[in-house]
What we know:
Strand content: 25-35%
Order of helices and strands: EHEEH
Shape: globular
Amino acid sequence: GVRVQIGAFADAARARALVSAAQRAGFGGASVDSRPGGPGRPGMFVVFLGESPGAAEAEAALEKAGHALGV
């Protein structure tokens, strides 16, 4: 499967807000993953729409998210 990333934030609250908006827009598999930072780099919170079976489905999901969420 293909995971579609729609955002990356230093602020967890912003990431959670995007997940909530994506879920309301019909992306029930939307989630946030935390990525640790490195020396001199803060951690990041990465937002995904969910998993698509292939590249074509992932592209379609990303286009739908662009219209629904402005990403």
